[in-house]
């Protein structure tokens, strides 16, 4: 009852063989306080008996929504009084975080399991040869016993320290006296912070370049209030064309839901464009529209206003690009969230303040529950959501050590600052990564310290050394044994013997943002290579990105593989780089990288049409070649000359240009700048029009053509 008054939540964790009885009696207790709760139930429908369990629960409630864990991203905006998680077959951090988040103030989340440590799906993906650690779960249980508001039932042992409504503050709306934004919209707000956003966002409508930044922890209703504000703008003439972008569609979903709520409240008619799977992609009313576009398209999109949700997660480089192209920009972002990189983004905003007219609105009050909610605190500390790197400036002194996973999980401050580096540098970090760090054996964690504080971290996984049987299974597509690099090279490059070599995959490397570009990453790699005694290769696999790839190439790694399909979730193509440490592996590197070069030369116009041409050029420049092209035919040379002199158009000489560029990348005798090479790649190998090549390269059509001519001239001199 006190929780209802104080609008705070409870979390119950049940680990017991008679879990159903225990959940039922807890639910009975809860029903005494709230007779008709809305219930959300999370599970894997296809696991043994899980559907039966769900059906049993479903009978008990009128308002019941069952959600398949694998689909749960779609339901981020949902909330319920009672959230029940089936943790019999899986105990996965991302799902726990996501579902507990759906619980409303006064409500309760229940996680039930027979045994948290064994037989869990995600954990199995971290298990190799039956070996896995349980540092994550032990920390989870230890915190659950210590934190208030958590009912922890292990067998028949109960730990629970209650919380009190005196310690919480409920959100209330507070409508300003004479609001400029319509009253109907203010009425829809649930906290005074939302009213504030609605009114103060008007800042963006005044003339000139303006940037509005809205930041808060998760669940403060940022997206909702911006959605309401956009519904107002749509009814005003000035903002006819509004784009919304975010790393994934789902982070913007609430914006669209609340544009609709707003338009409904204002009694305005609108039209929806929905994707096949039900996502609202565009809302139109009269001459105005709000449309979602992916970050790739937003870069060169046009309109009157752009909203970027989860802005910190997209990367500052992208934000700079948006700021160059747009006059009216709204950045919405979570700080201290799962996807967030808090301090780095806030520093970025501070720097921006001196360059453009900027307003920064911060929201404090949660929407779904009270400020001071004990479960929010538990989740923050459990998943280290507010982990940040230690503040330290690198002064040239670097101590590099490997730290055992046990040491890391025993020392919360060390864990927090090491994990903070990973969270801040890799925006895709999620609660799952903490479990991976704690539980996956066969890994090595290397930490770089400056002035005794962590500034860099590197996670290494041992791979390879496979048996014939394992290799055969992988080659037949049967099993994924978790050896990522050998797996890809065996399955897609058919390099069976490579599987027998011993390797270290650098799964993660990150340097705290203030200290990047000072040589720390390279020194860590050097040290890791020294540690790799008796190892044939050290490698890495990551989403292809120009500057990250440059880092590996600088450190002596060679690209050997590039995926043929874009990974939609990661929004890019993955690339594998390897540094050979033994003669045997050297042979593979030469062979595989030559094959990669050939693949790029022959298929850039189809397989890699959408890949950044600079990246293709960088790959072509840094791969071996085992074949040569013949002499440049005189006819080709003459044609190209005629083109350079402006006597014939490009299409007339396209085949000659293709020949010459292929020859260049096979022989690498001419020294062209990466910009010129990228223009050649875009036009000649990818077959883009001048216009599209220009879009990719940030150049005008004329500039691209100038570079192509310039490049062809040098190549002709070198090779004919
Ligand atoms: C498997 C993986 O984890 S791949 C992903 C790698 N990690 C990340 O992208 C996280 C964010 N970035 C970082 O943490 C670091 O910048 C790292 C790990 C990529 C590189 O470490 P650093 O100490 O910054 O690199 P270091 O100073 O040794 O080398 C500099 C070179 O790396 C490249 N580089 C890549 N990213 C950066 C960056 N953010 N800042 C500066 N240089 C970078 C450049 O080519 C640079 O050479 P240049 O100065 O001639 O342009
Ligand atoms: N005014 C409102 N009325 C009803 N529900 C609201 C309101 N504002 C927010 N919500 C609900 O609260 C939840 C959090 O809102 P929203 O997604 O806007 O928060 P956010 O701060 O953007 O959080 P996140 O970081 O999760 O994106 C959502 O489920 C949303 O539907």
From TrEMBL:
User: Which stretch is the leader sequence?
Assistant: none
- Enumerate the Pfam families for this protein: GNAT_acetyltr_2 (PF13718), NAT10_TcmA_helicase (PF05127), TmcA_N (PF08351)
What top-level branch of life does the organism fall under?
A: Archaea
Acyltransferase keyword on record: yes
Enzyme type, top EC level = transferase
Q: Which GO terms describe its cellular component?
A: cytoplasm
> What keywords are assigned to this protein?
Acyltransferase, ATP-binding, Cytoplasm, Nucleotide-binding, RNA-binding, Transferase, tRNA processing, tRNA-binding
Enzyme Commission numbers on file: 2.3.1.193
Query: What InterPro entries does its record include?
Result: Acyl_CoA_acyltransferase, GNAT_dom, P-loop_NTPase, TcmA/NAT10_helicase, TmcA/NAT10/Kre33, TmcA/NAT10_N, tRNA_acetyltr_TmcA
PROSITE patterns under this entry? GNAT
Asked if the keyword Mitochondrion belongs to this entry, the reply reads no
Name the residues that bind acetyl-CoA. 509-511
Q: Where in the cell is it found?
A: Cytoplasm
Q: Where does ATP bind?
A: 194, 368
Q: What are its GO biological-process terms?
A: rRNA acetylation involved in maturation of SSU-rRNA; tRNA acetylation; tRNA wobble cytosine modification
User: What is a single molecular function from GO for this protein?
Assistant: tRNA binding
SUPFAM superfamilies the record matches: Acyl-CoA N-acyltransferases (Nat) (SSF55729), P-loop containing nucleoside triphosphate hydrolases (SSF52540)
Q: Which residues form the N-acetyltransferase domain?
A: 398-582
Please list the reactions this protein catalyses: cytidine(34) in elongator tRNA(Met) + acetyl-CoA + ATP + H2O = N(4)-acetylcytidine(34) in elongator tRNA(Met) + ADP + phosphate + CoA + H(+); a cytidine in RNA + acetyl-CoA + ATP + H2O = an N(4)-acetylcytidine in RNA + ADP + phosphate + CoA + H(+); a cytidine in mRNA + acetyl-CoA + ATP + H2O = an N(4)-acetylcytidine in mRNA + ADP + phosphate + CoA + H(+); a cytidine in tRNA + acetyl-CoA + ATP + H2O = an N(4)-acetylcytidine in tRNA + ADP + phosphate + CoA + H(+)
Functional summary from the UniProt entry: Catalyzes the formation of N(4)-acetylcytidine (ac(4)C) at the wobble position of tRNA(Met), by using acetyl-CoA as an acetyl donor and ATP (or GTP). Catalyzes the formation of 41 N(4)-acetylcytidine (ac(4)C) sites in RNA, almost always on the middle C of a CCG motif. Modifications are found mostly in tRNA, with small amounts found in rRNA and mRNA.
| PANTHER family in alphabetical order | N-ACETYLTRANSFERASE 10, RNA CYTIDINE ACETYLTRANSFERASE
Give the record's family classification: Belongs to the TmcA family.
Q: What is this protein called?
A: tRNA(Met) cytidine acetyltransferase TmcA
From what organism does this protein derive? Answer: Saccharolobus shibatae
